Amino acid sequence: MTENDFDSFSAVVVGFAELKGKQLSAAAIRLYWGAMQNWNLQDFTAAAEQLLLTSEFMPTPKEFEDLRKAGRPTTGEAWIAARAAMRDASWSDIEASGFTCGNALIDRAVRAIGGYGAIGMCETDKLHFLERRFAEHYQDLEGVEDVRRVLPQLTGAEPAVRVTGPQRAISTLVRRA
Length: 177
Known about the structure:
Layout: H1 6-19, H2 26-35, H3 41-54, H4 61-69, H5 75-87, H6 91-95, H7 104-112, H8 116-121, H9 127-150, H10 152-155, H11 169-173
Helix pairs in contact: 1-3, 3-4, 5-9, 7-9
């Protein structure tokens, strides 16, 4: 949102608060405004209408963010997408370093567990172990990416070490000149 949207934004927040039996100070509205800056006004208004139907109390910005996250693939859906991409590809494509399922976050989680080739070579009865490791990496990466995107000044734009697949621990600790 831009400063031009502040009055419309404020009207939605104040109206919501009023319907929930709350009064907001100017400082509270400004805090809300600051927290919701990465939204556009139309999405914010639509989310407010949904939360009006589903929230018993005045929602916090976290509840708005939870709505936005609901549109992302779950870990199970991400695993299915990774496996489906493999089924539709040739083995030479999978072994190529640039193979992707089309979702960067899923690709990074797959690289963290050894890559698409590791999934393809895994014995069927052991696949659930690999799926669990994938789910852990996917959830961690999802949370990290949110913070890196919103607070680059605190986290740094790029991580010091980026996981690109299995590697020896010493290789991540040695500084590259």
